[in-house]
Write a structure and sequence with these properties.
Structural class: alpha/beta
Order of helices and strands: HHEHEHEEHHEHEEHEEEHEEHEEHH
CATH class: Alpha Beta
CATH architecture: 3-Layer(aba) Sandwich
Radius of gyration: 19 Å
Strand order of the largest sheet: 3-2-1-4-5-6-11
CATH topology: Rossmann fold
Number of helices: 12
Length: 363
């Protein structure tokens, strides 16, 4: 699939977001948006959606986006191509943990998606992970305070809950967490928690319009096959014609939220007046074990391969890994009108179709 065709293929997802936002996209017209972590999975979806708004044929003022990233994990091909196709998107290679270069900062919205969310990679880059989650959001909050931005979106994580007991699942925002402050996951979990504290303080002391979201296991187009998260691993095995390899007993359970549903929740939150307090964004059903998910991926892919079990070569692979993760999204439903639409099988099918239509180099 050529890049132009790939963009066209995604239009179904973006129209679904348009419908859910019910006209609120007009608030982005003519505005300047800074997206940090733009080369990642979240950045992929934000940039493609804003580019969709710029090419929807409405003739409205364009959304101007600066896509910032340090390319720690490389610069993906798609981010170069989207800039070539949409002159309203520009790239900025920068380190958001450092003071903003120069004196000019004229953005209306900040989407702070810069982080290392894959356990495989935040175990590899623990200090860089901590810096992005703490120093990075501190820089964005300071810029927001000094330059009176309309809204800032901070990506916290469902990981801040740690490993909740059964009576705290589905997990509400009020649950304070069961998190290890030392260990292989602590660099991510604890830095996200501190990031939330910074957001709360800037909202309370300086009236910075900061929005905090806690994502629960997003998936869909834009997730790299070598990302190291479980669902991308499953898809990689299936697309390679191999058995799906589980490196655990497969009994841990999660819910999964398709990219267009998650993006809808994030944009609704960015445009909301709900400052300084977190909201869960994810799907609250079905909660599925990794063993069941592996079987479902095989079914959706119409693969005759099997699920096999192997020990991980990473000694810390399962250390402090939550046994269950499922959000209570009643607050997001009430505050934002958020309601996930894409079923798990439908989302997996679209994700696999996306991969199959890309060249191996683009996956």
């Amino acid at each position: 699939m050529q890049y132009e065709q790939a963009r066209s293929w995604l239009e179904e997802d973006w129209r679904r977001v348009d419908d859910a936002l019910t006209g609120q996209t007009a608030r982005f017209r003519g505005k300047r948006i800074l997206v940090t972590g733009a080369a990642g999975f979240l950045g992929f979806n934000f940039l493609h959606y804003f580019s969709h708004l710029n090419t929807d044929g409405s003739g409205s003022e364009p959304v101007r986006v600066v896509a910032a990233d340090n390319y720690l994990r490389g610069r993906p091909k798609w981010i170069v191509e989207i800039v070539q196709m949409d002159p309203n998107i520009t790239l900025s290679r920068c380190d958001i943990t450092q003071p903003w270069p120069g004196t000019k900062f004229d953005y209306d919205f900040i989407i702070h998606a810069a982080s290392i969310a894959s356990p495989t990679f935040y175990r590899k880059y623990p200090l860089q992970t901590l810096d992005a989650n703490v120093l990075g959001i501190r820089q964005m909050l300071e810029l927001g305070r000094k330059h009176n931005v309309e809204s800032i979106l901070y990506f916290s994580s469902s990981e801040i809950y740690g490993d909740p007991p059964p009576d705290e699942i589905p997990t509400k925002e009020s649950y304070r967490g069961n998190v290890a402050c030392v260990g292989p996951r602590a660099c991510y979990d604890e830095s996200k928690r501190l990031g939330e504290t910074l957001c709360y303080l800037y909202s309370r002391q300086f009236n910075v319009p900061i929005k905090i979201v806690r994502p629960f296991n997003n998936y869909g187009p834009g997730l790299r096959l070598n990302d190291g998260r479980v669902l991308s691993d499953f898809c990689r095995d299936v697309l390679s014609g191999r058995d799906i390899v589980l490196k655990s007993d497969g009994l841990a359970s999660r819910t999964f939220c398709y990219a267009s549903d998650a993006l809808t929740g994030y944009l609704l939150m960015l445009l909301s007046p709900y400052n300084g307090q977190p909201l869960n964004i994810g799907a609250d059903a079905p909660e599925i074990t990794m063993r069941e998910m592996a079987g479902l991926v095989l079914k959706v892919a119409r693969s005759e391969r099997n699920v096999v079990f192997e020990a991980s070569h990473e000694p810390d692979y399962l250390t402090d890994n939550p046994q269950r993760r499922c959000p209570d999204i009643s607050q997001a439903r009430t505050v934002l009108g958020f309601n996930p639409q894409v079923g798990l099988e439908q989302g997996l099918l679209r994700m696999l179709e996306w991969y199959r239509n890309l060249s191996e180099d683009d996956r």
